[in-house]
Amino acid sequence: MKLKQQPSDFLVVEIPTILFSQDKKAHSVFITEKTELDTFDAIRMISKKTNVPLFEIGYAGLKDKHAITKQYISIPSKYNVKPFIFDNLALSFVGFNNKKIKIGDLKGNKFSIVVRDIRPNKIDNIQEKTKSLTLFGVPNYFDSQRFGSVLNNQFIGKHLVKKNYETAVKIFLTCYLKSENKNMKNQKRSILKNWSKLEKISVHNKIFAQIINEYLNTHSWLEAYKKIPANLREMHVNAYQSYLWNECIKEILRVCVNGKKIYSVEYAVGSLYFYKDLSEEEISKIPSMFPTLSEKVKLSEFDNKIVSKVLSNEKITIQNLDIKTMTGNFFKTRKRQVIIIPENFNVSPTKDDELNIINGKPQHKITLSFSLPKGSYATVITKKIFNQ
Length: 388
What we know:
Layout: E1 10-16, E2 27-35, H1 39-50, E3 58-59, E4 68-76, E5 84-86, E6 89-97, E7 106-118, H2 123-136, E8 138-139, H3 156-161, H4 165-174, H5 182-193, H6 206-218, H7 221-225, H8 230-256, E9 262-267, E10 270-275, H9 280-285, E11 289-291, H10 301-314, H11 324-327, E12 335-337, E13 339-340, E14 343-347, E15 351-358, E16 361-373, H12 378-386
Parallel strand pairs: 1-4
Antiparallel strand pairs: 1-7, 2-4, 2-6, 3-4, 5-6, 7-16, 8-13, 9-10, 11-12, 14-16, 15-16
Helix pairs in contact: 2-12, 8-10
């Protein structure tokens, strides 16, 4: 099975909560259609093209880069921005609203996903799993896209919790992804090689230089960490919090579901548990909601047993999550749905896959279409069906 072999294989369309008016109001609302472009890059392009400051542009959610995505943004009407098409980004006007669009201002997302390179002998199994999916749903895991800040399988957020500030900074400055460019990799290798004598190296990256200079001036790895841009530091905390939530859901399944029904699928930072089906008794045991963890979280007796097990495995306590005073970052508690059932789920008939041909014979492809609540990951659906 292959996903995202070309941008048109993965289409995401936001389902907004805001209402649009044709009467002029404080903010103009546009829909952006972008290809192979993440939300931050798109917003920067729009800002540059229109001369609207970045902070003035509102958006409801973050979208994957490797896709065609349609999402709503708002721009103050005083800037008189006109629709445009520029490279892989199109901006179309849809109406007006009194308020700036903010993170979370959407009901969910519609997905259309082309799944390719399916072997003919797998079709029956796919049909069986899609039936189970529509009946029993899937765990609402955070998927691999959430963990881009995890380098060499190390959570910077976990090191903050454990007050290992030097390690946190070292991961940020020296670990890299295969996809990073050669200059960045070489710079990180140089920093690692000279870690015990940072004062003797020349660093070209502005952010890296600020972090290293802060340490050389203060001899505090904590102060050095604070020089990492705020949006990246927030990602470090969110990634670890999301991992802990995933581990809690896995523990819930261990406790509530017959182990013979459970199977695991790998993802970026470990493995996720799925189930073949659920009995009425198992459904009644699984909580409908489960909180993300912070030092302020309020837990039921059942929740506390789950959390205690996960935190024990991590060798931390709930109190360790109180990092705001030291770092300025914090863990925030909010309830998240444990099981989701995709709405309007549909599987197309199988077709020949023109991109994957073996011994002159095309493999199969299908298109999955469905809607999910905001914050849920479509790739969790494909993991359930295809075990990858």
